[in-house]
Amino acid sequence: MARHSIQGWPRRKRRGQRADQRLPPPGVRNLLERDFNALEPETKWVTDITEIGTDEGKLYLCVVLDLFSKLVIGWSMHHRQDRQMVIRAVEMAIWQRRGGWSVILHSDRGSQFRSGDYQRFLTQHTLLCSMSAVGHCGDNAACEGFFGMLKRERVSRTRYPSLDAAKADLFDYIERFHNPRMRRRVAKQDQKFSALSKPSVTTG
């Protein structure tokens, strides 16, 4: 280049360009560390978004799952996956909350979860934000497992002519099928624990 009097010019960085858009907010790390066991309710929550195809276009579903009961304690649906959709799902979970202690809420690093509005909402409601590493789907395997079950048991067998039809069917699956099934599972676990904790006739 020097021999032919050609000079290279450095490319100017665009105004507002960031080095890595996927960096977590300051102070946020993976608090869950793939430990999906919870000994009590309202200690560990996970959240994520999936898309459902309809004849009118895509419908996005955001859920909040309690790792103790595996209940979907919060959910929202919209034709756009934005920060307001995920905030509505978390807000529904908060409405059902019985205690005021801190709860870990784990998600991936999607832009909705990294948004300032979402982060401020969590702080205001004593929720501890936890985020997966980039490209590590296993860090949020609990939510992925629920979405897989939802699609196997319902979505893959159904054609939705409209967004409203999909919304109605997803509501039916969550509130009339999945959550009642999880409540029965928790009730059985409680019965087993009660039976084991009762003193026997011989030992007193």
Give the structure's gist in a few sentences.
By secondary structure, the protein is of the alpha/beta class.
Folded structure, characterized:
This protein has 204 residues and is of the alpha/beta class. It has five helices and five strands, in the order E-E-E-H-E-H-H-E-H-H. Strands 3-2-1-4-5 form a five-stranded mixed beta sheet, with helices on both faces. It is globular and about 60 Å long.
List key phrases describing it.
204 residues, alpha/beta, five-stranded mixed beta sheet, 5 helices, 5 strands, 36% helix, 19% strand
Order of helices and strands: EEEHEHHEHH
Largest sheet: 5 strands, mixed
Give start-end ranges of low-pLDDT stretches: none
| Neighbour order of strands in the largest sheet | 3-2-1-4-5
The count of helical stretches stands at 5
Q: N- to C-terminal separation? A: 93 Å
Count of β-strands? 5
Shape: globular
